[in-house]
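Researcher: We plan to redesign the surface later, but first we want a full-length starting point. Tokens attached.
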């Protein structure tokens, strides 16, 4: 009965968490599309034929606006959500996280087995997806851009600084950097919300605080991967020739 109640609690909690996240994401998409349309009408008057930077273009990590920055659209926001949640990088990170948890048998309620691995993988995946949905949805209310922008071509130290800065800050519609408030809500909010359906050994305030710190560390790790992996891939391709 206890196992059945626990499993039922996990399913119910996951459904609530995902439902909340997707509602926020949908509201954010609508808000973003309206804001983007309004910004486009205003910006069109002064826009020149300068190239638009993508996530791989050189960026300025200062608090000054990027002159060629264009606000994220609703479609791009949804794309960011899916890639960040179920893209190759996220799924691979989940394998490592679930594998490590299974190896050290944490939480002990899941056991050191394949079913335990699956539970750990699923718990992480739903948590990441919900956190991303909250960040994308709530951030749209004030135009916060969750995407990472590379500092390609800049000195190594500047690129490291860009990684750290964009872990805790995000672009606004005019391109300037400001605190990533939606991220500050999403990462701890998701971890504390999940206390109601996590395994007993992980359903504590200290565990939620630890997961919150690890969440920001994971975002910094993701930024590092996005910053340097394209360069590493080029070198790998050259090495094969």
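Model: Full-length starting sequence:
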């Amino acid at each position: 009965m206890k196992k059945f109640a626990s499993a039922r609690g996990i399913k119910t909690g996951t459904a609530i968490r995902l439902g909340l996240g997707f509602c926020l994401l949908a509201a954010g998409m609508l808000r973003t599309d309206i804001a983007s349309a309004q910004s486009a009408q205003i910006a069109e008057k002064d826009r020149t034929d300068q190239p638009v930077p993508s996530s791989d273009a050189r960026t300025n990590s200062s608090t000054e606006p990027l002159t060629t920055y264009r606000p994220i659209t609703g479609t791009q926001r949804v794309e960011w959500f899916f890639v960040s949640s179920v893209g190759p990088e996220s799924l691979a990170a989940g394998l490592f996280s679930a594998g490590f948890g299974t190896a050290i048998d944490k939480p002990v309620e899941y056991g050191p087995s394949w079913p335990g691995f699956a539970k750990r993988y699923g718990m992480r995946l739903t948590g990441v997806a919900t956190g991303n949905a909250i960040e994308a949805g709530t951030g749209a209310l004030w135009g916060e851009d969750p995407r990472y922008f590379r500092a390609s071509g800049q000195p190594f130290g500047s690129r490291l600084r860009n990684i750290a800065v964009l872990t805790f800050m995000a672009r606004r519609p005019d391109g300037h950097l400001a605190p990533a408030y939606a991220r500050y809500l999403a990462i701890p909010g998701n971890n504390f919300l999940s206390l109601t359906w996590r395994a007993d050994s992980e359903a504590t305030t200290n565990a939620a605080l630890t997961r919150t710190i690890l969440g920001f560390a994971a975002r910094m790790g993701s930024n590092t991967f996005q910053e340097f992996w394209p360069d590493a891939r080029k070198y790998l391709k050259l090495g094969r020739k």
